[in-house]
Amino acid sequence: MKKLVVTMLIATMAIASAGCSKAPEEPKTETTETTAKKEKQETDVTLEFLYNLNGEAISNEVQAVCEQFTEETGIGVEAIMPGSNFSDIMKTRMASNQLPDVWTTHGWAVARYAEYLEPLNDFGFADHISSSIEEQITDKDGNLYTLPIDMDLTGIIYNVNVLEEAGVNVDDLKTWDDFNEACKKVKSIGKTPIQMGGKDSYTFGNLMDFIAPTFITNEDEANQEALLDGSFDWSKWNVVVDQVASWNAEGYFNKDAVTADFMTGVKALAAEEAAFMFHSASGISEIYVQNPDTEMGFMPLPAREDGLKTSLMTGEHFAIGMSKTTEHPEEAKKFMEFMAREDICAKLATKCGMPSGLDNVESDTGRLEPFYEKYTNNAEILNIPYFDRKYLPSGMWNDLCVTGGTILSGQDNATEEAVTQMKNSYEEKKAQE
């Protein structure tokens, strides 16, 4: 009897810089491989499942679910989490046409991966896609390309106890000026206002991607249209980089913002040493694993000025697509059906701390339920797409990561270089569309 090998590959890799900016120097790549074995595999087929869920608790749950699939079906699964360079790995594999059997589509099911994915309309779960996310994972012809285990509702996560100690009420944080005052109060009690984990470069990308729409596209149709048609004036990007540079100059980031990783940030918020983090609500699940006695919440992104609405980003989080060229289509279909099963989908969405993307599945959002009730379908809050997914050409996520890191690393002329890099990369990639 063959053995299941479930492999978890955790790697930190430098993302090459583009344009004029220089990325902060990162540690050399280190790869750790952990192997768990089960005497349950009864076939010669092992599916490769590549996923990009960051955080130990969530990744461990994915591994456990894959083992359960093998126990029930006899089909092996090699589940691989390659770390912060997931997008680069997938681009390389698309170019070489050597794709995994199944993979997480991380917001790009339609725009980037559609030509490589098998439409999922004939699956039973296709009738249960939540209306809140259906449009974002379906193309203009009605083809469904990914299974949404959960749905993003993302703003800024925060430690309730730290803010109470600092005398901050998140309901009062309507604009970035309000947020800046809150950071000042947090710093005055000796805590870190904004926690970053730049060793995992996607955290720099999150920072830029989260604040950009609040300054550029929210309630501004002219900028929306200009970004989509290629005519955007990139001098307007100065307001984004200047805000980040201002936080850096004020000492609002953790001192090791460039070298700390995501889990370091998780532990800082869990220990009530930091207040805010630009991350989806799944980060809160990781924080509660570290310290179940603390109190966490999430809030909308502030507006650029009084009179405008705050906002929350919506879209894919944990979503799985199936390769149209897999050599094991029947086994891959069984895996997709298994992951969509009510008990499995509910378990995974619950671990992520997010609502399920299937309307027949109830996830237990636990201590976050009051926040979802407060913000879901709230007419006073804009629901917006992720900025890079909607308004930037494919491939510019790396530019957000690199330019964010450049600013926080304190390089000379960092803001000017960041604007130049974004402009040059945008124009180059737009020309290739």
TrEMBL record:
Gene3D superfamilies: Periplasmic binding protein-like II. Belongs to the bacterial solute-binding protein 1 family. The keyword Signal applies. PANTHER family: ARABINOSE-BINDING PROTEIN-RELATED, POLYGALACTURONAN_RHAMNOGALACTURONAN-BINDING PROTEIN YTCQ. This is Binding protein MsmE. The keyword Transport applies. Residues 23-40 have a biased composition (Basic and acidic residues). It comes from the Bacteria. It comes from Faecalimonas umbilicata. InterPro entries: Bact_solute-bd_prot1, SBP, SBP_1_CS. Residues 21-40 are annotated as: Disordered. Pfam families: SBP_bac_1. Residues 1-18 form the signal peptide. GO terms for biological process: transmembrane transport. Keywords: Cell membrane, Lipoprotein, Membrane, Palmitate, Signal, Transport.
